[in-house]
Amino acid sequence: MVRLSVMFSIVIVCWNKRDASRACLASLRAAPPTTDHEIILVDNGSSDDTAAMVREQFPHVNLVSSSTNLGFAGGANLGAAHARGEQLLFLNNDTKVPPGAIDALAAFARERPEARIWGGRTLRPDGRINPTESLALPTLWGSFCVASGLAALFPGSRMLNSESYGGWKRDTVREVGMIAGCFMLIGRRFFKELGGFDTRFFLYGEDVDLNIRARERGARPLFTPHASIVHAGGESSRPEDMWTYLLSAKLELARRHLGPVRGRLAAACLIRGSQLRSVVLTLAAIPIRRLAPKRDIWRVVWSRRALWSACAIADPIAGHLPI
């Protein structure tokens, strides 16, 4: 007899990157959560043999295939539509889950039900903390600091890296502006009430948008340091593509959620910040040759400004996607 529901559904979206998906699923199989669960992997129009690998090596996984790349938002929504869990755990396919991490996050959610969205700590493969799993909501100043590179130059500064809570070591329970979709737990019914992720965000920004809409309905996203995963975080993607999608998403978020005046100001901050970064790197790379790769990246990003400054990008860029 097939069970109608489980405690939670782990939803993983992938686009190619067979080996990353294999490693993620292997980590879950090696130390599965003790909480009643199911695993759903959405093959988002992959051109490699990811689907065949899942069928052969992980027959317990519910494989959901899309004929086209729906983007992260569309793929995640597709996975959620097939879920039976009372809660949804969205997990990136380039993550590895240590023993006990998911059980710890599930226990935290039971202890703090008022949050309605929960997340844990993500570590880079070398053990460094990845601060992008829990961020403050977008502001004018934060937008400029991210685009101009000030946030990257001064990661520990509360003033210059406010969006990533500069200086916070991710060692305390804390209410945050948003929990990233790479390791996010949310009730399935609440997710449905919100309409899921907005598919107008092809890549990046969909989780910020969801958290903002959730907060409008009373959610108070909570971070716990007691549930940690390892997240490669787009290491195999081209930086110029990542920044193109990211800036496009940030501009769309500003237009939607900051109001007409502040939205236009935020857009100006992002555009001028990106221009400043490109100019500074061009000049700095003359005496400091090691900056040449970054200069080249930002030349490409700035040359694409007509693309990313117009609206949220809804399609792949020349076949290159950092997911």
How would you portray this structure in words?
- The chain is of the alpha/beta class and 323 residues long.
- The chain folds into two domains: 6-136 and 176-231, Spore Coat Polysaccharide Biosynthesis Protein SpsA, Chain A; 239-308, no CATH class.
- 41% of the residues lie in helices and 19% in strands.
- Strands 1, 2, 3, 4, 5, 6, 7, 9, 11 and 12 form a ten-stranded mixed beta sheet that branches.
- Helix 1 runs parallel beside helix 2 and helix 5 packs parallel to helix 10.
- It is globular and about 60 Å long.
- The chain starts with 5 loop residues before the first strand and ends in a 15-residue tail after the last helix.
What's a quick, concise take on this entry?
The protein is an alpha/beta fold and 323 residues long. It contains 12 helices and 12 strands.
Query: How many distinct beta strands?
Result: 12
For the CA atoms, what is the radius of gyration? 19 Å
Structural category = alpha/beta
Name the CATH superfamily classification of the largest domain: Spore Coat Polysaccharide Biosynthesis Protein SpsA, Chain A
| Multimer state | single chain
The CATH architecture classification of the largest domain is: Alpha-Beta Complex
* Percent range of helical residues: 40-55%
Please describe the biggest sheet, giving its number of strands, its sense, and whether it closes into a barrel: 10 strands, mixed
Alpha carbon gap, first and last residue: 36 Å
Rough shape? globular
The averaged pLDDT comes out at 91
- Contiguous uncertain segments of 5+ residues: 318-323
Reading the helices and strands in chain order gives: EHEHEHEEHEEEHHEEEHHEHHHH
Portion in strands: 15-25%
CATH domain class name of the largest domain: Alpha Beta
CATH topology of the largest domain: Spore Coat Polysaccharide Biosynthesis Protein SpsA, Chain A
Count of DSSP helices? Answer: 12
Number of domains: 2
